[in-house]
Amino acid sequence: MPKIISTLIKLVMQKLKLILVAFLLLSQVNFAQKNTKTQIQYLSGTDKDNLVEWDFYASEGRKSGEWTKIGVPSCWEQQGFGAYNYGSDDVKTRAKEYGLYKHTFLAPMEWKGNEVKIVFEGVMTDAEVKINGTLAGEIHQGSFYEFKYAISKLLNYGKENLLEVKVNKVSANESINHAERDADFWVFGGIYRPVYLEVSPKDNIERVAIDAKASGVINTDVFTTSKKAASVKMVLSDANGNKIQDLSVTENSRSNGKWNVSTKAKTIKTWNPEFPNLYTLTIQILNKKKEVLHSINKRIGFRTVEILEADGIYVNGERIKFKGVNRHSFHPKSGRTTSKAWSIEQAQQMKDMNMNAVRMAHYPPDVHFLDVCDSLGLFVIDEICTWHNPMLDTKVARKIVKETVVRDVNHPSIILWANGNEQGWNPEVDDDYAKWDIQNREVIHPWSIFNKTNTIHYSHYHSLINDSYSKEKILFPTEFLHGLFDGGHGAGLDDYWNIMWNLPLSAGGFLWDFADEGIERTDRNNEIDLQGRKAADGIVGPYGEKEGSYFTIKEVWSPIYIEERFINNDFNGVFRLENRYHYTNLDQVSMTAKWIAFNGPNDENNYEVLSQSKVELPNLSPLTKGKFTVEKPANWQDAEALHLTAIDAHGKEIFTWSYPVSTSKDKYSPKVAVVAKSAIKTDTKDSKIHVKVQNVTYTFSEETGLLLEVKKGDKIIPLNNGPIILNQKDKIEKIAVVPTKDKVEINVIYEKTKYSPSWSTVKEYASDVIKWTIHANGLLDLNVKFKGNRNLKGFRGITFSFPEDQVAGMKWLGDGPYRVWRNRMKGTRYQVWENDYNNTITGQSGFVYPEFKGFFSSLTWSKLKGKNDNGFNVYCRTPHTYLRMLTPEKSEEDNRKKGKDKTRLNPDFPEGDISFVMNIPGIGTKFQNSDSMGPQGNNEHYFGNDDDLIALDLTFQF
Asked: Which parts of the sequence belong to the Glycoside hydrolase family 2 immunoglobulin-like beta-sandwich domain (predicted)?
């Protein structure tokens, strides 16, 4: 009996096993049938802020020689491993470590029968991948390119699987090392972009390439090796997934695993940077029974790109101009590992500067950055990584071109491909782009005259005339106005853009570059390292800190261009403007006018709005001109400024223009009070003139008339040694002290000098004059008259001394909050500003903006805050006066530079510490002096005839 029972139990168990196997097989079949979409399972984290720990071993450098943990994705230097290198480092001393990674993951049984691929979005540099001890495929070379392996046959289903990756920081391919590791940027090692598994049905769409035209026509290559696939279905939805229509699909061809199909959407909105309309295209392959085998969604934008020879670059029929910038994929804390949030932040800053384009420098970016360009609206030049000569070898270049185009082909933002950078182009692969790009976008060679384009780098202003043998080429420098420290970018841009905008064959250009590439060195207590002058090229700092050029660019590249205007007694309220949008009518833009009155330096409330009104802009179509009128309220002349704020169709500020009201210039000067005669005393001894009034004692030199000391009670106000008239060598003829009932005047008269122009007889210059007036209520007036000097190449104005270590801050009414240069005047706003003292060297140290020291335009008054309550107020009644506040520390220069080149990024400043001047210098770029960057950077200034006198009128209040 027991034997029978035992036999029965065995039979039951066998049947149960058969039932279980059948159930598992059925469940796998059901999974395969139900799983019509690709599933994604991340093995790493998703970005710099979300890491997953893997086992890790570093061969050399820090934390090497033992197995430990590392967060993935990451650059291993930022996790404390290995050593740092910049591309220009000596190859003999460059770090050559490798890293070993291990990670286990579960492959569920239900994956069996599906196609599983492992995807690496980016590894630096050579990657050897094993699954359960078996190579997944050939070693991948190239840091910036997505690659994947089919691993279905290597997995143990229902069990843990071992992923092993060996990453060599230095490639076995020397052309890749030259392209990626000898270039002018930081080089890192590691699995720095995400790693994930793609699980798709066995019968699947491998990939698609889509060409969605502005007409609504969609031409698509569908790649599949499925023998069950009989037809293709397409559905168009909006960006949120709401179905719009089922598309009628025409099959054009089918061969070698590629189907070409076409269709046409009905009513669609086109994609452009001003209105980046996006749609979701669902693509499905069906079997003969019309059952879905595999379904994928792709985000698309309808747009048509045409490069017309000797004409221009057209998008949706409109000839465009690039207002562009170059951008590295980089974060100061995590290196090349970034995040979508960081991509959004940087793209939003570009859009805020009124840019419409970005060049990928010098490699394909994270895919999420391209997604952001699609959604926010930026034209993109996508580029493979090469660097000067020698070029990439052809075999690896072909692979890299394919990987770039296959990954990025469907982004509407991409309108051009760049085959490398600055002579690194391999012409043998120019035609390879078309093999993978259904849109057949044009290929350019940055820094070259190639095919239809001239993408010259760092041309001088005058070369933009483009009158050489290549004058029929479409001109757009893929790098220009190379920023370094505070130079370039905004400096010179107004001049360049005036030429670019009005030159028919100019398609704009791309500034170098977006952000300072400073890395937090984990081997130096997280100190920011910019490799001296090599990586300090940004418009913004490492963490997005805005430099002054940020706002200059915002104004110069405003799609609403307003002619320069001055508001005086004859102001009629009329402004002339131009619509510099490509796709937006001005009826989609709003503008507000505010007439503003400002308070004085000692008031807590800085301003009040006297009147506010809506400005009716003319309904101008793109690229047309017109005018608008600002309403003048009855009390408009009581205002000190008019502010005009334009808001675009998406609710974002385009720019706020400000216009001082010149009729109110002397409003702020404090009034002279009537005081008893005994309140002011004067005596002269030891070659010094002492004037005591109230509790203030002024001391002047009897020999020079310069202010030597101000003493208020027992406290010294350390403003002294002025006014020195800059660039003035005349001798003093006489000094006169004239006391009267309620004031004391000190007059300094300089000798007249003679000149003999070739066309005239000998003449005399008018005399320079300094006039001090000390009033009985303690106010100190200063009136200086000095020669203008025609074509002067130095400063005109006056200067004083004030010890920098006594300065705590400044409040002022004038243009701000950023300093200006002669060739970077735009981007400021006239109002009350307040900056604390800082010693920032732009792009090099501090990164506290605005910088405190420099030249500030349109001065009306300034309150200098002393550290020991020893500051003062000064009021300026002379229009267009610049305040010079201290002298910025010099940025790091190239020691090879000599003469004029030595000051291209560190312009000369007047002697002294605080100056009031009528002219200021321009600033250069990394490669150019300011005088080669256009008229505004020229160092000559015209002040009228040689015998004209400029009057500078100030009042000091201590």
From this structure: 214-303
CA 340 – CA 353 distance, rounded (Å) = 20
Q: Are residues 633 and 685 in the same domain?
A: no
**Where is pLDDT greater, at 24 or 937?**
937
pLDDT of residue 26 exceeding 60: no
Name every residue whose Cβ is closer than 8 Å to that of residue 679 and which is 6 or more positions away in sequence.
693, 694, 776, 777
781 in a structural domain: yes
CB 347 within 8 A of CB 377: no
Amino acid 898: pLDDT: 67
Residues of the domain holding 273: 214-300
Name 492's Cβ contacts closer than 8 Å, sequence gap at least 6: 461, 481, 823, 824, 922, 925, 928, 930, 933, 934, 936, 937
Q: From the CB of residue 525, how many other CB atoms can be counted at a distance below 10 Å?
A: 7
Q: Do 266 and 314 belong to one domain?
A: no
d(CA 930, CA 934) in angstroms, rounded, equals 8
Read off the pLDDT of each residue in 797-801 and give the average, rounded to a whole number: 97
Whether residue 239 lies inside any domain: the answer is yes
The 10s digit of each residue's pLDDT in 649-702 is 999 999 999 999 986 556 777 776 666 556 899 999 999 999 999 899 999 999
Question: What is the model's pTM?
Answer: 0.94
CATH code for the domain in which residue 634 is found: 2.60.40.10
Which CATH number is 149's domain given? 2.60.120.260
Spatial separation of the C-alpha atoms in residues 660 and 641, rounded to whole Å: 4
CB 574 within 8 A of CB 598: no
Strand (E) or helix (H) holding 176: helix 174-181
Within-domain flag for 669: no
Q: Whole-angstrom Cα distance, residue 467 to residue 459? A: 13
Q: Nearest to residue 74, comparing CAs of 90, 58, 96, 91?
A: 58
Q: Prior bond to 365 cis, omega within 30?
A: no
Query: Could you say which of 510, 526, 556 is where a domain stops?
Result: 556
Rounded to whole angstroms, the Cα distance separating 179 from 123 reads 15
Read off the CATH number of the domain in which 936 is found.
2.70.98.10
Tell me what the mean pLDDT of segment 212-233 comes to.
Answer: 97
Q: Does a cis peptide bond (omega within 30 degrees of 0) precede residue 850? A: yes
Phi-psi category of residue 671: left, alpha or beta, with phi > 0 → left and psi -120 to 50 → alpha? beta
Last residue of a domain, one of 300, 329, 353: 300
pLDDT at 767: 83
What mean pLDDT is predicted for residues 5-22? 46
Q: 252 and 150 share a domain? A: no
Summarised one tens digit per residue, pLDDT across range 453-477 is: 999 999 999 988 878 889 999 999 9
- For residue 664, which amino acid is it? S
Backbone angles phi, psi at 764, to 5 degrees: -115, 140
List, in order, residues 6 or more apart from 516 with CB less than 8 Å away: 530, 535, 536, 537, 538, 540, 541, 542, 843
Question: How many Cα atoms are found within 13 Å in the side-chain-facing hemisphere of 432?
Answer: 22
Q: What's the pLDDT tens digit per position in 803-861?
A: 999 999 999 999 999 999 999 999 999 999 999 999 999 999 999 999 999 999 999 99
- Residues 755 and 835 grouped into a single domain: yes
Segment holding 3, helix H or strand E:
helix 2-34
pLDDT at 662: 83
**Residue 668: inside a domain:** no
349 and 433 both lie in a single domain: yes
Mean pLDDT of the chain: 93
Q: How many domains is the chain partitioned into structurally?
A: 6
Q: Which residues pair with 227 in a beta bridge?
A: none
What CA–CA distance (Å, rounded) separates 334 from 647?
A: 36
